[in-house]
Amino acid sequence: ELGQLNRTLQGTTRATVSPALGKLLAQALVLRDASSGLFDPGIGQVSALWGFDRFDAGDAPTTMPTASALARAIAIRDAGFTVTPADPDWVIETGRPGLVIDVGGIAKGSALQRGASLLQRLGVERALLDAGGDIMTLGRNSGSRLRIGLRDPRATGVSAAVTVLPGEAVMSSGDYARYWVLDGNRYQHIIDPRDGSPVVAAQASTVIHRDPTLADAAATALIVAGSADFLPVCDAMGVDKALLIDNLGIMSTTPAMHERLL
User: Fold this and answer.
1) Which residues 6+ apart lie within 8 Å of 7 measured at CB?
2) 31, burial (CB in 10 Å: exposed 0-12, middle 13-18, buried 19+)
3) Whether the Cβ atoms of residue 47 and residue 77 lie closer than 8 Å to each other
4) What is the CB neighbour count within 10 angstroms for residue 127?
5) Which residues have C-beta within 8 Å of that of residue 238, sequence separation ≥ 6?
């Protein structure tokens, strides 16, 4: 449905979507504002210019996007979009035609949240949900703890492990799975919305929170922010358990996350 929405928005500024997608897009806008735009669902066209819409097909770019193409894509992104509840469908309106909405920064968190809710409705009391390495736990807080390993962004194996309580999610973001190399330079899939370039400030981030969608967006925003703005972004987004590995491999943690490290 999101793909169909993006195709429609190439030639118009108004479209309708199901309530399920509308609610997700509305939440994406709330998280965009909370992160001061470091997480931005309007970044899809910019990401496509860097070739990450074709990455999974193995079609790596052979040239860099032009400055003029990036400027046009950013101008369309800057025009923004709104989400309005309506009956039966929700209304999406954009400032200019051509917007491509990308919810990759929160999609797995949202899916984990919906999966956990479904299991609870079915009477499941304890579960561990895994969406490509992002984890959601379901259970009663009886004092039991899980140990979750965190992937080393530059080597095989784990760089650290954290303890997780029932009902918490562990959401990670990094540059180690989706990237391509051109002329010896590494370009990763997380885009800095401020200038439209692949992020270079950090290698990986992890956030623990009871809201997996919030944690997912925060992990993305922290990668963009880098170590200089690590704590301010955590405060702004309301996460107290987070860690960041910067571009030099140096780890920063919040005090509450430090207590969870093993």
Assistant:
1) none
2) buried
3) no
4) 14
5) 34, 214
- For residues 251 and 67, what is the distance between their CA atoms, to the nearest angstrom? 33
Distances (CA, A) of 90 to 23, 28, 56: 8, 15, 30
Say how far apart CA 57 and CA 96 lie, in whole Å.
Answer: 29
Residue 53: pLDDT over 80: no
8 Å CB contact between 184 and 85: no
Place of tokens 């449905």: 1
Give pLDDT tens digits for 6-47: 999 999 999 999 999 999 999 999 999 999 999 999 999 999
The torsion angles phi and psi of 244, rounded to 5 degrees, stand at: -140, 135
pLDDT at 143: 64
CA-to-CA distance for 239 and 191, rounded, in angstroms?
22
Q: How far apart are CA 43 and CA 221, in angstroms?
A: 13
Is 179 within 8 Å of 188 (Cβ atoms)? Answer: yes
Neighbouring residues of 68: CB distance < 8 A, sequence distance ≥ 6: none
Residue with tokens 């922290």: 222
What pLDDT does 156 receive? 86
